[in-house]
Each structure stands twice: as C-alpha cells, then as structure tokens.
Amino acid sequence: LLNDIDRLVSTDSAFLLGPWLASAKRWGSNQSIKDCYSWMLNNTDGNCEHFYEWNARVQLTTWNPTAPNDTAIPGGPIDYAAKHWGGLIGDYYSKRASILLLQALSDEEAG
Description:
With about 110 residues, the protein is mainly α. The chain has helices at about 1-10, 15-30, 50-60, 90-110. The two termini are about 30 Å apart.
C-alpha cells in the first residue's frame, strides 16, 4: 500500500523529495563563506552543501538532529514534521512500517 501511495504522490512535482534536496544542496553550494560545521556530520571542511542537505532531510522526517550512526532517536517531538512526499513514503516510511510489522509478529510469536 505504501509503495502505491508513493507512486501516486510522485506524479505531482510538489510532492517530490528530489527537488527539495537538490534545492538545499544548491543553497549550500552558493554560500561564499564555508561555515557550516556540525559535530553530528563530522564535517571539518565547513561544506554547506552537505550541511544544508542534512538539515533538509531532518526537517522532513524526525525534526530532531540525529547523527548518521545514532542507534536511538533523540528526545523531543518524533515525526513532528512528517511529510508524505514521493521518495519518503517508499524509502523511509515503508521501511519503518516493515520494521514495526516484523517486531509485532515477533512479539506475537513470543507471547
């Protein structure tokens, strides 16, 4: 079902993840001063292109800054900024739904 919804919303360019991320990268590459440092990204070069893309992804999903290798969700609102865009539904939310379903089946089997 989620993959079908992903395909449906992907027919409207207003719901596409790719242009949003590309725009963030463009904004980052246009910065004359490279001062986009983040301990979470471990970027020592101040590359704003990666920093802006990371922020664009965080704004659409958890809203909470989360380091790439974190194994736990940080405190605060979860899915506060959840967007149902093409690319996110199929690649992000469907994987989460699959993990949740597998855990529920495992819990049911365990009793």
